[in-house]
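Long-time lurker. I teach an intro course on protein structure, and each term I like to show students one example going from raw sequence to a predicted 3D structure in token notation. This year I'd like something fresh instead of my usual example. Would anyone be willing to generate the tokens for the chain below so I can use it in lecture? Attribution to the forum is fine with me.
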Amino acid sequence: MDDIQIQEEKTVDLTDSMLVVAFPTVGLVSTIAGQYIIDSFKLEKIGVISSRYFMPAAVIHNSVPSPPVRIYAGKKVCVGETCHQLVVIISEFMPPAELIQPVVDTILDWAKEKHCKIVLTLEGMHAAGEKAPRTFGVATTDKMKALLKQYSIDEIKEGMIAGDSGVLLYRGVQLQRDVICLIAEAHASYPDSRAAGKLLEALDKFLPEMKIDPEPLYKQASEIEQRIRAFISSSKPTAPQAPPLPSAMYE
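-- Reply from a regular --
Happy to contribute to a lecture. Here you go:
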């Protein structure tokens, strides 16, 4: 839709950067991980994605109100001749289904215009049982599949991925763009900080010059989850509940 626009607030050279896309999913793992990256590296807000069809709400972080979909970026970190730079598109809400492909196409067009090297999307899948969450990957090109193999991330062979991650993947195949989806098993009934930490561990392998340490997130996970579980069990909904995310199966 023509109404979906990326509005840059600052001009930043993003050549050869990695663009991380973090829209909410099972256990909110992508949003938790995305915000952790922004805070850890002190990324700066450089723009927003706007549309009159988005949720009419402001997200308040560090006392600053912002639109629902924001873009953050950091400076290049170089060791020798190797450099890495992170860009994060993050949101606390998933666009309506009819907007997902236009949003994805807008993101891919912008990434190409800014010469981003890799688009990496963060995703969650329903965990089976109480075992430690595992992480998996899906890639769109042979080059990206080789990276998954290099970093010992198991590639999903069969299954379905819904939402923005699914559209990013199939559009990546159609356009021959380098897109990777990292997926962590997560619990859908509460924000799953441990699973978000597993995503960060996997992402860290792609960024040897930029150390991502998820330990603080792990240390706070039990306290965060206990608080949220207690809140869920003691509170009653005050507004209509959103429909559940679609379940998915993977092999």
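Some talking points for your students: Residues 215-234 form the longest helix (20 residues). The chain has a mean pLDDT of 85.
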